[in-house]
Amino acid sequence: MSAFSLAGKTALVTGANTGIGQAIAVAMGQAGAHVICAGRRSCEGTAELIGGSAEVLQLDFADPMAASDIFADRAIDILVNNAGIIRREDAAEFSETDWDDVIDVNLKALFFTSQAFARAAMAREAGAKIVNIASLLSFQGGVRVPSYVASKHGVAGLTRALCNEWAAHGINVNAIAPGYIATNNTEALRNDPDRNQAILERIPAGRWGNPSDIADTAVYLAAPASDYVNGAVLNVDGGWLAR
Question: pLDDT tens for residues 105-124?
């Protein structure tokens, strides 16, 4: 069997209704996994793209404990923590509500979902893979997105911390830091000629990333090929951070 095959595995992908999450879910299905597509919005379209026995699960991580009970009754081998939100405002005007909303979804929910997943995997004495979606803003400060930056720095730190505790149990915890990816969320940037040109000039690869660039990396981190990769935050950014 290929070291990149996910045949016989079950993967839960959060925020799988569109964009990067959808691409990851589809790629994992193509690699042979049974995929559970989770999101607060309908993931039926993603399940249709995957075909076969793909499942849909409604989870709203505005409640950080939303996934705490879903791992006890079934064996899930791969968890992709992709769900996330962002709020934009000057730091001097940023509200407590916007701070809490972003931290709850992007960081608190990620931790407690991972905790529930890991507890179930350890109880089964089975190896497992966690793939977190970090950000370039896990390494940079950004502008007007203080809670998002804090949450994504936290994702990078948690990835390393959980690796340190769970690697001995056969659980790999890694993260992907996407660069500028052509999704609905970046459409406004790409439609702004000046901003689009400035971004492209900074990227050594000379192009925006595609969701498939992130999806293929996620498959690698979920597959046997990465069994000795643990606690890594992989930049998939066309060289942005190297500039």
Answer: 999 999 999 999 999 999 99
Please, what is the angle between helix 96-103 and helix 146-166, to 10°? 30
Is 148 catalytic? The answer is: yes
Question: In the CATH hierarchy, which top-level class contains the domain 10-182+210-234?
Answer: alpha beta
Burial of 179 (0-12, 13-18, 19+ CB in 10 A): buried
Q: Do residues 121 and 171 touch, judged by C-beta distance below 8 A?
A: yes
Q: Which residues make beta-bridge pairs with 132? A: 81, 175
- Interior angle at CA 52, CA 85 and CA 60, nearest 5: 20
Considering the entire predicted model, what is its pTM? Answer: 0.97
Q: Which of 66, 59, 168 has the alpha carbon at shortest distance from 118?
A: 168
How many Cβ atoms sit within 10 Å of the Cβ of residue 56? 18
Give the 3-state secondary structure percentages of the chain, helix then strand then coil, rounded to 5: 45, 15, 35
Question: Which are the contacts of 130, defined by CB distance < 8 A and separation ≥ 6?
Answer: 78, 79, 80, 81, 114, 117, 118, 162, 171, 172, 173, 174
- For range 6-27, the mean pLDDT: 98
* Token code pair at residue 232: 């890594």
Contact 35, 102 (CB under 8 A): no
Token pair for 238: 């066309």
Q: Which residue in the list 148, 180, 220, 228 is annotated as catalytic? A: 148
